[in-house]
């Protein structure tokens, strides 16, 4: 899928692209430097039980994805650049996988449940591949999911009021049987990320 095709999805997408280009999307004019991981535990310790609500209103747990490889990203809809970029790149990677894309589930877990309701997530995700599942919940539910993945996030006040979120920018590639197989680094070549996804699916 070409990026141009994504832009044609509708006026919301065009607005997103314009705001991202100027770095103004969300309540703030900046985004703290994203973290890669909250810590460096053994890969087998990453991942675990969670209970969250999808952008379609379904209550989902880790058990609903049992036996499927996952690509898990923690972010938020008011993110100026990192999150929309990561989701656009995931959209392109899924397109490049062709039919194999149906063998992996991409999850976008909000770290800002105070603002990211299921409806906000649903509106936001219209700009990206429809197979990407948005997840939100109570603050306690989101914190529990982040702890399971050793993902970092923190609310950061901004000048003039409001806040943004500092957060882990890693996409976790999870084995069907549990545990992290690998991770997508936003700084590595697209070909490397695509190869990692293919290897995840091949497992």
Automatic annotation (TrEMBL):
Cu cation binds at residues 79, 83, 167. Keywords: Copper, Disulfide bond, Metal-binding. One of its GO terms (molecular function) is metal ion binding. It comes from the Bacteria. Coiled coil: none annotated. Pfam families: SCO1-SenC. Disulfide bonds join 79-83. Gene3D superfamilies: Glutaredoxin. Belongs to the SCO1/2 family. PANTHER family: ELECTRON TRANSPORT PROTIN SCO1/SENC FAMILY MEMBER, LINALOOL DEHYDRATASE_ISOMERASE DOMAIN-CONTAINING PROTEIN. This is Photosynthetic protein synthase I. It comes from Methylobacterium tardum.
């Amino acid at each position: 899928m070409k990026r141009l095709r994504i832009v044609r999805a509708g006026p919301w997408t065009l607005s997103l692209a314009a705001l991202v280009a100027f770095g103004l999307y969300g309540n703030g004019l900046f985004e703290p430097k994203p973290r890669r991981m909250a810590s460096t535990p053994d890969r087998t310790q990453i991942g675990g039980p969670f209970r969250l609500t999808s952008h379609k209103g379904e209550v989902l747990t880790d058990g609903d994805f049992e036996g499927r490889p996952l690509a898990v990203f923690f972010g938020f809809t008011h993110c100026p650049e990192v999150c929309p970029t990561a989701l656009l790149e995931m959209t392109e990677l899924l397109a490049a996988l062709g039919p194999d894309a149906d063998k992996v589930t991409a999850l976008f877990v909000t770290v800002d449940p105070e603002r990211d309701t299921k409806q906000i997530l649903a509106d936001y995700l219209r700009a990206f591949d429809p197979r990407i599942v948005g997840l939100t919940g109570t603050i306690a539910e989101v914190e529990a999911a982040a702890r399971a993945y050793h993902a970092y996030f923190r609310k950061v006040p901004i000048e003039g009021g409001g806040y943004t979120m500092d957060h882990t920018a890693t996409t976790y590639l999870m084995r069907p049987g549990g545990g992290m197989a690998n991770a997508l680094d936003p700084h590595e070549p697209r070909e490397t990320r695509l190869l990692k996804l293919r290897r995840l699916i091949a497992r």
